[in-house]
Design goal:
heterodimer; A: 107 residues; mainly beta; seven-stranded mixed β-sheet; four-stranded antiparallel β-sheet; B: 121 residues; 11 strands; globular
């Protein structure tokens, strides 16, 4: 099975900051990588698919990059509603799998 | 608008079975698959499996094979996940998600609200 490792596991930042979350796959997954955002008590929300494509309706301050084994999610200017937990997700291998999550908290 | 409405919370005893439903609306049901993901209390996301609404093909994570059955009913645009021989570590929120293939990449794009399944004696 393909293992997905996110870093950091938690992160403190302020409104207006630029933050980057990384995700590393245990083997090459090409660009078969999605990013999700989850707030407490809510279902996950798709932000980025195919490593770098912005899902419809998602603000342009979110961006994704990477290919192969190393990927990043960047939020250019944090807004109050962005404080949440973020998960990467690969669907190259069977079974698909998620990273362990990165909790983004207000500093 | 796209909506996936899941059935209500369940409390089951160890060894029992549970069947969670996911009613889809607002899109052409057979043009998308349905994925299932679970989340234990305070934990991360775990892939459960996927169903093709077109062919009926399904796939599930190996650790649940033999206990989980994923089905879809195009006549009612509803997907189902049945989990048998429940254990305490099956306690989780179970989510369904509409799933499309984008350039071959399975992408769950709209999610249900989740169904809490509690397994307790």
């Amino acid at each position: 099975d393909i293992q997905m490792t996110q870093s950091p596991s938690s992160l403190s930042a302020s409104v207006g900051d630029r933050v980057t979350i990384t995700c590393r796959a245990s083997q090459n997954i090409n660009n078969f990588l999605n990013w999700f955002q989850q707030t407490p008590g809510r279902a996950p929300k798709l932000l980025i698919y195919a490593a770098s494509s912005l899902q419809s309706g998602v603000p342009s301050r979110f961006s994704g990059s990477g290919s192969g084994t190393d990927f990043t999610l960047t939020i250019s200017r944090l807004q109050p509603e962005d404080f949440a937990t973020y998960y990467c997700h690969q669907s190259f291998g069977i079974p698909p799998s998620f990273g362990q999550g990165t909790k983004l908290e207000i500093k | 608008q796209v909506q996936l409405l899941q059935s209500g919370a369940e409390v089951k005893k160890p060894g029992a079975s549970v069947k969670v439903s996911c009613k889809a609306s607002g899109y052409s049901f057979t043009n998308y698959g349905v994925s299932w993901v679970r989340q234990a209390p305070g934990q991360g996301l775990e892939w459960v499996g996927w169903s093709s609404t077109y062919s009926g093909n399904t796939d599930s994570v190996q650790s649940l094979q033999g206990r989980v059955t994923l089905t879809t009913d195009a006549s009612t645009t509803t997907a189902y996940m049945e989990l048998r021989n429940l254990r305490s570590d099956d306690s989780a929120i179970y989510y369904c998600a509409r799933s499309r293939f984008v350039r071959g990449i399975l992408t769950p794009d709209y999610w249900g609200q989740g169904t809490l399944v509690t397994v307790s004696s």
